[in-house]
Every structure is written in structure tokens, then in C-alpha cells.
Amino acid sequence: MFLSSVHACTDLIKSLSNHSIPRLYVSSAFKVFCSISGHSPINSFEDFNLVITQKSVSRAIDSLLYDKLLSSATGPCFCALSLSSSIPHAGDWLLALLSPSLGLHFLDLDFKTCQMYWLGIPLFRSDIVCPLCTRACDPLGDHSVACGGNGDKILRHNSHRNVLFTAAQAAALSPRRETSSIVPRSCSHPADLYLPNKANQQL
């Protein structure tokens, strides 16, 4: 950003010209930054309450814009979508390298559907009825993801487990499915996917 670049060059400019950076040179940039970020008026770099780097200034603007976005949320669905998409690594699937041999690929329609769901774009009309449970489907597709009709919830759960199991097998982690009696003298639910602790074993 302009301000961070100017600040980084302050000492160089002063050593070359024996003059400080004129206030008018950066006053317009200060005004733009304050109007975008909601920061209190700034007249000089000394007024900043953060380390002036491109990353820190961008992060400050992003944080303030994100807070404004949440405050303007029109309902719990939009708020939940914004919060869930901002969780660390939530968008890693968008950056994964395509590799059909490793199972890292999407059909075109599947990818478009996932993108629309991720962005909160309506997937279909609001008057669509779920063919499995006959309930109304919300346009954003939340019902389709969570519907338990025809055993779909269990099928999705098992599909996710199997994908992780296959990945763990490929990584030689010796995974086991539906392992019971993990906790001694306990009737706890079996582990959907169990990875033995190999910390004390020699490889």
C-alpha cells in the first residue's frame, strides 16, 4: 500500500534530500485510510497505533470491514456463513491442487454447487420440496446438507469417514474403522476412525 511504502522509505528520502516527507504528500492517503477503516483522524505516521507495514495496514482494514459486514448481517444464516468462512483453513479446499489420481478433483457441476453454497448464493427456488423428507428446502441449501431423509445423513457421515480412512491408509498411519473399547472400562461410542499413537514406536 502507498502509506506503508512511503513509511518504509522515510529514512531513505530524508538521507537523500535532507527533508522530511511533506505532510500534503500523504494527507489524502491518510483521509482515504480513515474513511475506509473508520480510524480516528490521522495527520502523521506517529498517530498510527500499529506497526506500519503493508500487512498490518491491510489486516487492520480487513478486520474493520469484516466487523462492518457482520454488523450489517440481515439474519443468522448470513452471520453464520460469514463466521464459518473466516475460520482458519476454511477455504483451503479452494487452493488444493487438482489430482484425479489422489482423488483431489471435482466434477464441474459439483464444484459450481460448492462455490455457490460457500458464497451464500441461492441454489434453487424457495418453493422446492425435498424429495426425501417432503419438507421445504431453503434456497441456500442448508436443508440439503443436513437432511436425514432416506438415511442420507448416515451415508454422508460414512462417506466422509471412508475418505479420511483412505487418506490415512495412503499416509501409512495404520487407521482402523469403528474401533471399540478405546477407553478402558467404558462403553463409549466406537471411534469412527482410529489412528494408533506411534510416538513411542521406532520407524
Descriptive labels:
203 residues, 8 helices, 2 strands, 4% strand
Task: Describe this structure as you would to a colleague.
The chain has about 200 residues and is mainly α. It has two domains: about 1-70, no CATH class; about 85-195, no CATH class. Helix content is about 45%, strand content about 5%. It is built from eight helices and two strands, in the order ααααααααββ. It has helices at about 1-10, 10-15, 25-35, 55-70, 75-85, 110-120, 140-145, 150-170, and strands at about 175-180, 190-195. The protein has a two-stranded antiparallel sheet with strand order 1-2. The longest helix is centred in the C-terminal third of the chain and has 19 residues, at about 150-170. The model has no long low-confidence stretch (mean pLDDT about 75).
Average pLDDT = 76
Strand content: under 5%
The oligomeric status of these chains comes to single chain
Strand order of the largest sheet: 1-2
Task: Report how far apart the termini are.
Answer: 49 Å
What does the overall shape look like?
extended
Classification by helices and strands: mainly alpha
* Total count of helical runs of at least 4 residues: 8
Percentage of residues in helical conformation: 40-55%
The figure for the number of domains is 2
The string of secondary-structure elements, in order, is HHHHHHHHEE
- Tally of DSSP β-strands: 2
* Weakly predicted, low-confidence segments: none
The radius of gyration over CA amounts to: 26 Å
Short description:
With 203 residues, the protein is mostly helical.
